[in-house]
Amino acid sequence: MKVRPSALFPLFRSDTQGAIVAELFGSQQREITVADLELSTGASAPTLSRELRRLTTAGVIDAKKYGSRLRTYHPNTSHPLYHAISEIVAYTYGPVPMLEQALSTVEGIKAAFIYGSWAARREGEDGPPPNDIDVLVIGVPNEDSLNVALRDAESWLRREINVTRMTADRWATSDDPFTLNVKARPLRALRLSSLRG
User: Fold this and answer.
1) Which residue segments constitute the domains of the chain, with CATH numbers given?
2) Which of 25, 26, 87, 190 could, after both became Cys, cross-link 94 (CB 3.0–4.6 A)?
3) What is the pTM of this model?
4) HEC string of the chain?
């Protein structure tokens, strides 16, 4: 099945390329493996290896080898376009890795999604660039921890984050117009490390 290209930033050659760059530049300098990228992007190892080779050859990212097989990848902070790429990532694909990282620190979240205009553009729906990020948090999170996590994410993304909280029961059973509308429109699930178990 052909996947529609994202409408977030048409200069990326593919949605996979945008997702890879976002994981690398939006993950606060941690080293990432091909296996990490398979989980976060859903792309195959050969596709990821090809894209990583291109980015490494261009000097945009660096690779480290551990033993005979394991390689990790991270942004090349000395590349002349490092800051420009970081800005593009923060504005386009960055909300996914940044919110996954931020919300993984908050206890009580059962699931989280990006919805609204950002999710719609990511799914290829045409329209103006999103001015903010709409996030749905399922569960009963600690309010203070959630506010701190979202404030940090807003600072990095330089965009307002609008959060809606909902209990797991309401999300599973509600037929109110808001819940039905959110479920009917594009949703981007956030993978939270606290849920990976």
Assistant:
1) 15-93 (1.10.10.10), 96-196 (3.30.460.10)
2) 26
3) 0.77
4) CCCCCCCCCCCCCCHHHHHHHHHHHCCCCCCECHHHHHHHHCCCHHHHHHHHHHHHHCCCEEEEEECCCEEEEEECCCCCCHHHHHHHHHHCCCHHHHHHHHHCCCCCEEEEEEEHHHHHHHCCCCCCCCCEEEEEEEECCCHHHHHHHHHHHHHHHCCEEEEEEECHHHHHHCCCHHHHHHHHCCCEECCCHHHHC
